[in-house]
Known about the structure:
Elements: H1 2-13, H2 24-45, E1 48-49, H3 51-54, E2 56-60, H4 69-80, E3 84-88, E4 94-99, H5 106-117, E5 125-129, H6 131-159, H7 162-186, E6 189-190, H8 192-219, H9 231-267, H10 271-303, H11 307-325
Parallel strand pairs: 1-6
Antiparallel strand pairs: 2-4, 2-5, 3-4
Helix pairs in contact: 1-9, 2-7, 2-10, 4-5, 6-7, 6-8, 7-8, 7-10, 8-9, 8-10, 9-10
Amino acid sequence: MSKLGNLGARLHRGEVGYDFVGNRKIWYGISILITITAIVGLAVRGLNMGIEFQGGAVFTTPAKTAASVSQAEKYAEEASGHDAIVQKLGNGSLRIQVAGIDTNKADNVSAELAKDLGVAEKDVTGELVGPSWGEQIANKAWQGLGIFLVLVVIYLAIAFEWRMALAAFVALIHDITITVGIYALVGFEVTPGTVIGLLTILGYSLYDTVVVFDSLKEQTKDITKQTRWTYSDIANRSINSTLVRSVNTTVVALLPVAGLLFIGGGFLGAGMLNDISLSLFVGLAAGAYSSIFIATPLVADLKEREPQMKALKKRVLAKRAQAAAQGEAPNASAADEPLDDDREDAAPAVVGPRDQPVSRSRGRGRPSGKRR
């Protein structure tokens, strides 16, 4: 842990660093590949929408039902005439979900299920959802997501600038697409809990992105008054200075979510935990990736297109070429030394121990300490 803390301090001071912005084409390619895979999975397999969105019924059997999941699935499909999804809960009961059945036929389906499973009819509980209510839930979910994205873009455009707002918006769409694509590939059911998870991970993704943007905004004040660093150099320094913080917060957030997903959902068989935990797990990981590898490099690309930044880059490269011709070490990366000493009007930094001047009168008039 002490080594990790020392590494974080060195990254923050700019003593070490990795060129994230310089290798941005690699990150863009990886993101495009993952996004295309997610879109293909979504187009081929589609989303497994829960009954909250398409209507249907959910039947829950008593604890320690003797029938297996495959048997219960077969009984439910024969009784309803529709596809059924069966989950075994932690107490041994079965959760049988049948989408698309009419609500007036639910009692008959419940009676047949109780007979086939060998349990009392009164012990089989049912929850009915009409298709119109499910459609309203879906519309409200899309409206909430749209309003959230609009407010985020407006806030970032006011607090920072429109380029950062655009980059954050692209990162959010990137995270949503990957998370939804994973749902399609895995086949997990999409429920209102999934929507809650999506909105939650968008907040986490924005948190990491805003932390980097705030550091970038602070370090690029009066950037055109110096000729040692380009905007991309300082953007790279901002990522490195906040890298350990972003990784630590993401790991700490992923640990309890992994417990919900793999222990609560996998071993205990809690269906609702699967819906929320998968979206949180995938979204948190995608959000941390996008804030580091997508959002900030994209801001650097957009800013480097400005005339002032183009002129600054030209001056910086010319100065580095001149320094290289004179045999001096060019400052090719913003991670090489702190930015605070980079202004043209700054005093030169003192490196190494300073030699104190020796006074010629030192020792005059003083006893030598020798005994006579």
